[in-house]
Design goal:
The chain is α/β, with parallel strands linked by helices. The chain is built from 14 helices and 17 strands. The protein starts with 5 loop residues before the first strand and ends with a strand. Bound molecules: the ligand O=P(O)(O)OC[C@H]1O[C@H](O[C@H]2O[C@H](CO)[C@@H](O)[C@H](O)[C@H]2O)[C@H](O)[C@@H](O)[C@@H]1O.
Length: about 450
């Protein structure tokens, strides 16, 4: 067996495990990011000094550490989480600070797919995103240039997302394609012509290794090899933990013949990629260049991801000193992201608030904060029925909270012009729902007649 170094960055360790024949590499260089206690790190490093067989145990140890679900919730874990969240606050809690930091800048959105737009499931072929998430991302792409950056192959993730107006960077950023439907940000055909595949020479090797891994791992129940065109994934989410060392040996026995491939870890998955200097961080920079924003000081890139490969993009944003990364995780992980969100549902809430903020700030700028196609949620504070009847005639609005197509509301305000404008002025500064206390029974109509409190503006556009 030729002696090859196979780098297995431990997804949660602070070290890259360089499995090497020479004991000289006992102290692997500190790897980017990684969350592992000192004691576990010492144990893992100790494994490196033991003979080859036991080195595989180091792999299994890091495979185990790569799946936080193994972390039983204990008081120390919740203390860890509390201190971690202080350094990586929720992007939802920090929303106002985030949008303030983006004022006057061009936001560009970069979204990982698995674990960010779609929940993690056992079967990779069934990792569907919800309809409401798709609707949200579609609206987001009308507000900001938006790219999907994923380990999945481009065609596969397009079949999941089904939005032609987005940019796609599949195979961990090694397969970049511009939008195939024009939108506000890609009117000219330049965007649609974007196609960049820096690892195209590796295609025959990837296919060859794919076949060998399928053959080699078929004896391990639950193991699944996924071909993502310029990279491969060996899934062990459904493999009995007692079989993980067998699987690690099987993968290692194939890769030892391919020194131009490297092994990294993701969420219960072994990722096999070409050793070219390209990753999601490089893909982010390439896309900013494609948008003509790479040297623009007013660009504000936002990258949302959940896995080890997204750290390359988080670090890129820190290096550039622009925008920020948001890690999607329920558990503390060492990360270069600034903020955190717990799961895809929180990602959707964050994106929805971004869309709402964009529309409200557009209207505030145009001093015309309501669009015909907006829908307003109204809470009508009861007032003497005669006013309501006189103003609204028989088209009386329900007294309960209701949704009213805005064009009807705008016609209404022409009648109520004198009375509603103050409420609308207030509404234009409201980014989201305001709490409306229960109308008091004895509330008298003010001298301005009916009082309307707009609880939120749902932007239809
Ligand atoms: O860059 P990403 O979009 O996050 O892709 C990373 C890997 O995601 C997928 O695997 C993960 O999601 C699966 C479905 O939820 C889950 O079964 C698996 O355990 C996770 O690791 C995808 O299948 C991989 O090819 C990607 O590399």
């Amino acid at each position: 067996m030729t002696q090859q170094n196979v780098v297995v960055p431990d997804t949660t360790s602070g070290v890259s495990l360089t499995v090497s024949p020479t004991p000289a590499q006992k102290k692997p260089p500190p790897a980017p990011g990684g969350y592992i206690s000192i004691s576990r790190r010492r144990r893992v490093l100790k494994n490196l000094e033991i003979n080859g067989d036991q080195r595989v145990n180091a792999w299994v140890e890091s495979m185990r550490a790569s799946s936080p679900t193994h972390l039983k919730s204990t008081p120390s874990l919740s203390q860890d989480h509390n201190s971690w969240i202080l350094h990586h606050p929720s992007a939802l809690d920090m929303f106002d600070q985030i949008v303030d930091a983006s004022k006057g800048k061009q936001i560009v959105m970069f979204l990982d797919y698995d674990g960010t737009l779609s929940p993690i499931v056992e079967d990779p072929d069934r990792a569907f995103m919800s309809h409401s998430m798709r609707k949200t991302v579609k609206k987001l792409a009308r507000c900001f240039p938006t790219a999907i950056v994923t380990g999945r192959c481009k065609d596969k993730v397009y079949n999941f997302v089904q939005l032609a107006e987005l940019y796609y960077a599949g195979s961990h950023g090694m397969d970049i394609k511009g939008p195939t439907r024009s939108s506000k940000y890609n009117k000219d055909s330049k965007a649609e012509a974007i196609l960049f595949q820096p690892a195209s020479d590796f295609l025959p090797m990837i296919d060859e290794v794919y076949q060998q891994l399928v053959e080699k791992t078929k004896s391990t129940p639950g193991a699944m090899v996924e071909n993502n065109k310029f990279c491969l994934s060996v899934h062990f989410r459904c493999v009995d933990e007692k079989k993980w060392s067998d699987l690690a040996r099987q993968v290692k026995s194939v890769l030892k013949e391919y020194p131009k491939l490297r092994l990294t870890q993701g969420r219960k998955v072994l990722e096999i990629r070409p050793t070219i200097k390209w990753d999601k961080g490089k893909a982010l920079e390439f896309l900013l260049e494609s948008l003509g924003l790479a040297n623009c000081s007013d660009v504000f890139p936002v990258y949302i991801g959940d896995d080890r490969s997204d750290e390359d993009a988080f670090k890129k944003l820190r290096d550039r000193g622009q925008g920020f990364g948001i890690l999607v995780s329920k558990f503390p992980k060492d990360t270069s992201a600034y903020y955190s969100l717990q799961e895809p549902d929180e990602v959707m809430s964050f994106l929805q608030r971004l869309v709402e903020w964009k529309h409200m700030s557009q209207r505030a700028r145009q001093n015309n904060f309501l669009d015909e196609e907006d829908t307003l949620k109204l809470e009508i504070i009861p007032s003497p029925s005669m006013i309501i009847d006189r103003i609204l005639g028989d088209s009386r609005m329900k007294m309960a909270p209701c949704q009213l197509p805005c064009y009807k509301f705008l016609k209404l305000t022409q009648k109520l012009q004198l009375w509603v404008r103050p409420a609308l002025e207030v509404a234009s500064r409201i980014h989201s729902c305001t709490a409306v206390d229960q109308p008091k029974k004895d509330r008298e109509a003010t001298d301005k007649g009916v009082t309307l409190i707009i609880t939120s503006v749902l932007c239809q556009s």
